[in-house]
Amino acid sequence: MLHMGRSNRSSHLHHLLVPAILLLHVLWISPGYASVEDKHAKDFYIIYLGDQLGNGDEAIKTHVNLLSSLDISLEEAQERMVYSYAKVFNAFAAKLSPHEAKKMMEMKEVLGVFRNRYRQLHTTKSWDFVGLPLTAKRHLKAERDVIIGVLDTGITPDSESFEDHGLGPPPAKWKGSCGPFKNFTGCNKYFNYLILSNTTMNSLKLIGAKFFKADGNLPNGEVRSPLDIDGHGTHTSSTAAGVLVANASLYGIASGTARGAVPSARVAMYKVCWAKSGCADMDILAGFEAAIHDGVDIISISIGGPIADYSSDSISVGSFHAVRKGILTVASAGNDGPSSGSVTNHEPWILTVAASGIDRTFKSQIDLGNGKSFSGMGISMFKPKAKSYPLVSGVDAAKTKDDQYLARYCFSDYLDRKKVKGNVMVCKMGGAGVESTIKRYGGAGAILVSDQYLDNAQIFMAPATSVNSSIGDVIYGYVNSSRSPSAVVQKTREVTIPAPFVASFSSRGPNPGSIRLLKPDIAAPGIDILAAFTLKRSLTGLDGDTQFSKFTILSGTSMSCPHAAGVAAYVKSFHPDWSPAAIKSAIITSAKPISRRVNKDAEFAYGGGQVNPRRAASPGLVYDMDDISYVQFLCGEGYNATTLAPLVGSRSINCSSIVPGIGHDSLNYPTIQLTLRTAKASTMAVFRRRVTNVGPPSSVYNATVRAPKGVEITVEPMSLSFTKPSQKRSFKVVVKAKQMTPGKIVSGLLVWKSQRHSVRSPIVIYSPSD
C-alpha cells in the first residue's frame, strides 16, 4: 500500500485505513501448487526465466515462443503478453489461467511464477529540524549528477518545486526518456528543444518520466501519462529533491521555504500507481527495470505490502537487481503501527524507513459555552462566522430511536438533516468524510472523538477537529448536562511540541522476514510534512471539497521515505563511488538517538535513530557489503537454489557449496539483533563485523559498550587503528543474554569513537512472544 499516515478517510487512496483485502499478498507458485480456483479463469502472472538475453527483440521472441508452448497460437501469445522485461531482468508478464501458470512453472526454463497483485499507496521545517539547513555544505556539481528515481503516482511537471533554472543538461550517464505524452509538459521541453535546434538546452530538473499500466484498465479521471492525478508522487519527489520555493504554505499554514534535501539533484518519475486501482506487481517490476536501465543512483519507493518471503516479492526482487547495479533502494516501513512485527520492505539490501515527528503540529481550539477550551488535532482552514453555535451529539440528531447507535458516528443515512443544520456536531470517529456529511446537511462544524492516538493532522473540508476519548467524554458530559450547550471550532494554528518521536502509525519490528535482522533501519520525518501537490484533485479527495493547493500537508512513512532517499542522495553527492551498503551504513551509524522513554518499542520503532544528514556525509567508518553477502545471508535463512532463482537470475547458486557468511547473522550489518531461544536459560551469539576507514587516513577508534541488565556484551579487539584511507579492520561482538519475559526488548549499544567521529551500532536483544 502507499504508505501514508492514519486517517479516517478510507475512501482516500493515500491514507492508511484501506480494507485488508486490498493489501498485496504475492503468491509464489511452487511445483506442487494446486489451485482451488476455476482453472480456466485468467489473471496476470509474472514469469521469471534464466540469465538475461542479449537484446530486446530476441527476448520478446523467446518469451512469445515460450508462452505459445501452452498450446496457444503465436498470435494469441502476443495478445496475452503485456510486458517483456529484457533490459535488466529476463521475465515477462502475461494473462494465464491457474492451470496454465502451473504448467509454466513446470517448464525447465522457468525459475518462478508470481501472480500479479495490486498494492495500495502507504517540506518547509523538516530539513532544518534534522540538521540540513540551507547553509549546509554542498558539492553542487556532484549533486547535479545525482539522479533520484521515484516509483509512485506520477508527477506534476509544472510545479514550482521542479523548476529547472541553472541546473544544466542531464548527466552524461543518463539513458532515460520523457515522452512525449499527452497532457504532460515539463522535461518534454528539453527533448523537443534538442530535436528542433540540434543543440543542448542548459537546464533540466525533471529528466525522466514514464508510466506503466499493463492491465490496460484506466481508472476514471486518470490519464495515460506520468501526470500525477493523486498528488502522492508529486509530494514525495519534491520532498526528496525539490528546488527552493519561497513562501510555500497550505492556505498560510506551515509557511516557509519548501525544498528537498538535494535541490540540485535530478528527478526521474516512474508512474506505477494509479488512483483507485493501486500499484500492480508487474508495473512495479517494470518501473524498477526502467529505473535501473536509465541510470538512476537512488530509488525511492513509498509502497509496500505484508510480504515475508524475499524471493517472491516484486519490490524485493526489483531492489535486489538494483543493488547489484550499485543502486540503493529506500523504502517506507509501512503504516500498520504500533502493531508488533508489522514492518514491511525489510530486506537487508533495502534502507527501511520509519516515520518520526518534528517539533510542529497543527491544532484547532474548541471553545465550549461553559468557558472551557480544548485543543483538537487537524487542519481546518475555516474562520468561524459566529462566536458560538449550538452543540449537538450525533445520537441526539438521529432520525429515529433505532438509528441512534450508528448516528453517534454521524453516518449520513442515520442523521436527521434538520437536527444537524446550523449546529456543531460531536461524533465518534468511525468513517470517512464525516465533516462532508455535516457540511452537506448545513452543519456549522464537527468535533470527532477518536479512540486512536492522535499525532498527525488530517485536513478537513469543513470546520472540524479531532480529540481523544478523554476530552470527548468531557464534551459529551457537557452536552448531556446542559440545557443549551454551545461550541465553536477555531481556525487551525501551528503549535510547537517536543520531538523527535516515532509516529503511532509507523510499522514496528521485529522483522517478520528474519529473526536475525533489525528493521526498520532508520527514522525520518513523516508527520505533517508540507510539500508540493497537484491541482488535479482537492486536498481531501472528498466529494464537495473545493479546497485546492499547490502545496499540502501529509503524514505517513510515504513521507519519511523520500526524506531518507534525499539524505542518501546527499551522501552520494559527496561520495559518488560508495556502494549502497556503505551509504546505508553511513546513514544508520550517524543517526541521532531517539529517546526510548517516549518510544517503548525502542529500536523496533526507530532502528538506528533519526536521520542526521551532515554527519552521514562524514561517518568515519562504514560497514560495507557486496551482493554475495546477501546471498550468504539468504542461504543462512534457509533459501535454496530454487527460491533464490528469481533474485539471482539462475538456479546456479548452491548454498551447500557456497562459502557461508561469518558470524551469527552472516551479514556485515551496522546493527545487531539477537533473538533469544525460549527453551534455553541463556543464549549466546558471535557477530563478526568489518569496518572500512572513510575518515582521516591516520586514526584510532576505541570501543564503548553499553549492555542492558541481564546481558553481557564483549568486543574484541577494543581498539582499531588505521593508517590509510579505505583500510579495513575486523572485530567480533559476543552477546550473551539470560532468558527474558516473552515479548520484551532491551537495548545495548556499541560506539566506535575517534577524535573526530562517533560510529553508533544499536544492539537489540529480543525475547519472542511465541
From TrEMBL:
Residues 1-34 form the signal peptide. Its main location: secreted. Residues 144-607 form the Peptidase S8/S53 domain. The active site is at residues 152, 232, 558. Residues 45-122 form the Inhibitor I9 domain. Residues 667-765 form the Subtilisin-like protease fibronectin type-III domain. Keywords: Glycoprotein, Hydrolase, Protease, Serine protease, Signal. It comes from the Eukaryota. InterPro entries: Peptidase_S8/S53_dom, Peptidase_S8/S53_dom_sf, Peptidase_S8_Asp-AS, Peptidase_S8_Ser-AS, Peptidase_S8_subtilisin-rel, Peptidases_S8_3, S8pro/Inhibitor_I9, S8pro/Inhibitor_I9_sf. Coiled coil: none annotated. Pfam families: fn3_6, Inhibitor_I9, Peptidase_S8. It is found in: Secreted. Belongs to the peptidase S8 family. This is Subtilisin-like protease SBT4.14. It comes from Brassica napus (Rape). The lineage of its organism: Eukaryota, Viridiplantae, Streptophyta, Embryophyta, Tracheophyta.
